[in-house]
């Protein structure tokens, strides 16, 4: 059985990345070049995996140079910690849900507004109460 191949348009739709961004990642060497050239060029599942990994790292605000290192296999260690310079300050929101259950949110990394964080925390607490009620009322 042969593995599927993708056009640039298909990759763009599957990854929700603009074609221009995909070409840029290829130019930088973050993603392998396509198989074939010009209009006959096509992409393999490995290209899709690479793009999804790069997208995930860029959404976590990892610098492109660090992404290159990760993609090259130089160092697969923590990436978010490396994106912050030593001595930087990071504020996090901690929600103590139950003993032993805590949610930690980094507003900078998550991109959530204070209002969105408040809404999320209210929903988590409401869901926790529903789960606890179901457990006590079988």
What's the total count of β strands?
A: 2
Mean pLDDT: 83
Strand order of the largest sheet: 1-2
Low-pLDDT stretches: none
Computed over alpha carbons, the radius of gyration is 21 Å
Structural class label = mainly alpha
Residues in β-strands, percent:
5-15%
CATH topology-level name of the largest domain:
Multidrug-efflux Transporter Regulator, Chain: A, Domain 2
Question: Biggest sheet, in brief?
Answer: 2 strands, antiparallel
Helix content: 40-55%
* Domain tally: 2
**What's the N-to-C terminus distance?**
49 Å
CATH class of the largest domain: Mainly Alpha
CATH architecture classification name of the largest domain: Orthogonal Bundle
Short description:
This protein is mainly alpha-helical.
């Amino acid at each position: 059985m042969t593995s599927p191949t993708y056009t640039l348009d298909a990759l763009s739709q599957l990854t929700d990345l603009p074609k221009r961004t995909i070409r840029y990642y290829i130019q930088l060497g973050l993603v392998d070049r396509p198989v074939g050239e010009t209009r006959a060029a096509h992409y393999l599942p490995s290209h899709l995996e690479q793009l999804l990994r790069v997208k995930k790292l860029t959404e976590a605000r990892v610098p492109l140079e660090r992404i290159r290192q990760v993609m090259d296999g130089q160092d697969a260690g923590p990436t978010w910690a490396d994106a912050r310079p030593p001595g930087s300050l990071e504020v996090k929101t901690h929600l103590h849900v139950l003993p032993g259950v805590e949610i930690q949110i980094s507003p900078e990394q998550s991109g959530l507004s204070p209002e969105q964080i408040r809404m999320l925390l209210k929903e988590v607490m409401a869901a926790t109460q529903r789960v606890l009620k179901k457990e006590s009322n079988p």
